[in-house]
């Protein structure tokens, strides 16, 4: 049986995919709202349905927000600039 957290998670994914089509000036606001709602929702899914579904929800959420996650990973891989003295 699908519980409320899974249904809301599905709606969150739809909202994340719809937010990708917003004008560029609204992306930061949309992303902030999605993250603010998604973190507690992820905790609720994990609490109600266990760590396996929680991890699946985390992966699905990260895939829905690919560009911010991708940019973050690229920044992590970059070397810090070397200072010339």
From TrEMBL:
Keywords: Membrane, Transmembrane, Transmembrane helix. This is DUF2484 family protein. It comes from Cereibacter sphaeroides (strain ATCC 17025 / ATH 2.4.3) (Rhodobacter sphaeroides). It comes from the Bacteria. The chain crosses the membrane at residues 6-24, 31-47, 53-74. It holds the Pfam family DUF2484.
